[in-house]
Amino acid sequence: ERDAVGPMYSLGHREDADALLPAAHTASTTRLSHYTFPIHAGRVYGHVQCSNLMYQVFNNMTLVVQFLVNMFSMVDSYFSNIHVGYTMFLLSIYNERDPVNLNDYRVPGGSAFNYYRRTFYNRYRLASSTVLNRDIPHEGTFEPIQYGLCNGSNLLFVAYMNRHYVFLSTIAANEIMRNYGMQYDVDDCTCFRRATCIMDRLPLITDRFSNCSIGHLANIGFSPDVGRCIFTAFGEPMNKSLTHVRCGNNVVDEGEQCDCGSLKQCSVSDCCTTNCHFTKGSVCDKGSCCTNCTFSALGTLCRPVKNICDLPEYCTSTSQNCPDDFYLQDGTPCSQVSHCYLGNCTDRNIHCKEIFGPDAMDASNDCYNVNLEKTRFGHCSRAADLVFYEPCTLANKMCGRLQCINVTRLPPLQEHVSFHQSVSGMGTLCFGLDEHRAMGATDVGRVRPGTLCAPGTICINSRCSGAVEDLNYDCTPEKCHHRGVCNNNRNCHCHLGWDPPVCLNRGSGGSVDSGSPPKKMRKMRETSLSLLYVRVVCGRIYAFLAAVLFGVATNYRSIPTTAVKSQTAPEPF
Questions:
Q1: Which parts pass through the membrane (predicted)?
Q2: Which of 79, 96, 320, 330 could serve as 84's disulfide partner, Cβ 3.0–4.6 Å?
């Protein structure tokens, strides 16, 4: 009911134009789904503080923790709609007394703000901190500092006021995104299938950001110095013992046999119950080596070969997990001019064909001059949390972005990835892919590590600095008796029909690392006798059809007909 959870009064609000970023004119667009917008993926690592008055509402540490976890789990679910996440990295509950007056919600300058800066921000440098008070301030009277996320002006206040945590989560999401830099929604902003939006000045219960908010988020994502910390990963979260181990988080923690996730997910699981224990008779729940709640048979293929430098893995019948991913030893030849490195073939021609199709080829050195620039289409490196690029030196330009020629078709690219066409100084049409912050996808457009960049030299960390001889490739044909190859553990992976570890005796193949295929396999034999039977049967069918057609043709009867012609009689004299 609106009167039960809505604001007690309304405030007039009119916001000036954004002084830092260009205006995003997205309010006039229709109700597009948020999935149609390319967003820079990030994560807010936050700090949550619970005042002593708020603690007294529950007067129980477990109940308070559950309330806060539920509240900010909802915030995380709202943020996931715009490809941003929220992690409760640090949790402070004042169960005895408040360290300072937490009702002083001035930012900056208040006692709570000064305590936060001195005690928490200077030590942990988290993106955001939210104080949950019992009575004040109402969201209509507290204004977060815009563009304050990550820079110390990131203290926020939410008042409980006997409201449900779902409603409070909407208010918290509103304040965090306002602190990040989002504008408040205006009258012509719309949400996807929702009547209200999170960035309303006084939000109601909702779970969607508007088209205006998505436009603002895109602008902020391209800004070099705003909210950089959400693109930087932190270490292990604090308060892990209270918040991390939970049945229902879809992660098998200590003391759990399985974890099927939410109640809805567990309702369709035959192997795991809602209390994180196996059902009767089950020994596994998930994993590529779990079949019908039991371990898959020995030798079941669980990870097929992905490319020419990869190796297959097989189930061991003792675990639901597939063995680690193994690949050919670094330095194994994969073409006439290249070798395998970290499970990939470093042939530039093969790389171009994978992206742009079978006609594409590696470009000439002239095309790689684009890497001397510092754009998303041509560079050597970029810090994870920055939008600025580091150009390649002349010696390293072959280790930047891959350049291809002879492109005759549009490539099927991932979401949020684009390609470009440039003209080299020699007039060659050069093609490549872009890279930018928080793509949320594998960067397939960079030159792969281990690729040759000069005679005897390979690319390492986008620098032409590695030596081929440092790979120490020692897998001679005699090592595996001409019946196998070497994996990245320098062990033999035997061909089908030969037993590991050295492929000397008859067996099923595989290796001691990735397992072996089943020893008993069905065989199919071809004989000329079966083909003869098919020919005889087909010949008889053809002869029968020919006889039927001949009989119909010979029994066809001719019926005589009389032709009548009309003529005009001559007139009498």
A1: 529-553
A2: 79
